[in-house]
Amino acid sequence: MRNRLCILLIEPSFLIREGIKTLLSNLGHPYRMEEIDAPVNDLEKLINKIHPSLVILNPMLTPKLITLPRDPENNFDPYYLGLIVNSTSAQVQSKFDSLLSVDAEKHELLKNMEKVLQQIGTTQNETESNTLSERELGILKLVALGNTNNEIAERLFISTHTVMTHRKNITRKLGIKTVSGLTVYAILNQHIKMEQIQGTE
Amino acid sequence: MRINKDMKMAEVIHLNHHLLPVLNRFDIHLGFGERSVETVCLDNKVNVDFFLEIVNTFHDASYFPVRHLQSFKASMLIEYLQKTHAYYLEFKIPEIGKYIHQITHDENMQSTHKKLLNDFFDNYQQELTTHINKEEQRVYPYVIKLENTLNNVNASLEELKALKKYSIHEYEEDHDDVEAKLFDLKNIIIKYLPPSQNNRLLHVILHDIFELERDLNNHGHIEDLILVPIVENMEKLLSERLNKLSYNA
To answer: Which residues, in sequence order, are CB contacts of A64 under 8 Å at separation 6+?
Structure first.
């Protein structure tokens, strides 16, 4: 799913990692997470592999880093959230976009995490609407009437690959995967008539 | 939480009531009193290790059965899987079908919509039945035959060779379309059927579909995680036996 937030969590303590996950599910945002529990030597490489939009990091696991890797021009600009304790130095704290103190109270943790998610959300998930575009609607009708991808491609002068992309988007938007499911949808919404499909099935 | 042999069977049901149909497949009936899982299994002549692997796989989708894998007979597993099939075809599907039929008697519902819902479900039922029949008529007999032949120390070269023509991986086809249809049926009811007077009945149908989906997922899981490894192992033994025999011959 496109809008699912990808998070990289770097923290040695199992309990704290579980706590972060509980915090996130309390807030109800869907996310996908990679967890690392050991020191990281090459953070840049790791981020390049995973492409997280949020990195939650215990600074003790990246002792050598003086600055956190960022390169906005190459689409490489994760949001860094530091997991800190009282004794974390101000200099280390200043590297992060935002901080989460592991000693904080629950309501404060929730508030801070919510703020972080909102900040990432505004730059990243301009959530698209779930209504079908004109083109998708046209393709839906053809699928519902029993046309194959190849037939649709020929009819609309587009490639089969493009038809498949449209079909993936239709399925994602409607939550319907099968041709017969799409046919039911199209009839229920009066995009096609029942009589049109009689005899084709 | 892992289910273990020392827990009380009653506790197991309190922990996860979705396990009730699973108990049925082992012919274990209610009225456990204070008896433990182990005692109830013994009383019902059920292999307790096998029982635990099945209920734990069902209870926790991330549970990975490994411990006793080699000690299970494939025939034991197949008996369980067949009972699961019977539960779908003889009980769960007819039950959902009955409710869908009831809803199509609703006078407020457009006849087109009734037909759509009915046809879609019929179609699903047919596909599921075809899929199940294929497993029952082709896959399971092969596995049983493989097990029996391997257990027979005097099995002839011809008998062993005949089995070599098949492999469990040929049967590992995707359940994708059958699964997808059930998924679609949920969304058709939740999102796209116009609001009807029959809300209560629709809720019952949805409940049943979710329950069936969960059971089917677990069924597939057991096939992939327990049955396939057991058969793979037998196929390896078969190759070894064949090599030895052809070498001696």
So the answer is: A41
Q: Is the separation of the CB atoms in A52 and A32 below 8 Å? A: no
Q: Do B40 and B91 lie in a common domain?
A: no
Please give the pLDDT value at position A43: 87
Residues B80 and B42 in one domain: no
> Could you tell me if the ipTM is greater than 0.90?
no
Structural domain ending residue among the three candidates B20, B37, B59: B59
For testing contact with chain B, the best of A132, A171, A172, A176 (most B CBs within 10 A) = A176
Q: How confident is the model at residue B56 (pLDDT cuts 50, 70, 90)?
A: very high
The domain tally of chain B equals: 2
Task: Determine the residue among B112, B119, B127, B184 to mutate to test chain A binding: the one whose Cβ has the most chain A Cβ atoms within 10 Å.
Answer: B184
What are B152-205's pLDDT values in tens digits? Answer: 888 888 888 888 888 888 766 656 678 899 999 999 999 999 887 788 899 999
Interface of A with B in 145-174 (CB under 8 A): 174
Q: How confident is the model at residue A125 (pLDDT cuts 50, 70, 90)?
A: very low
* Choice between A181 and B160, residue whose per-residue pLDDT is larger: A181
Specify whether B217 is located in the same domain as B112: yes
> Is B81 a domain residue?
yes
What is the rounded average pLDDT of the residues B104-128? 88
Helix (H) or strand (E) holding B221: helix B199-222
Domain shared by B18 and B92, yes or no? no
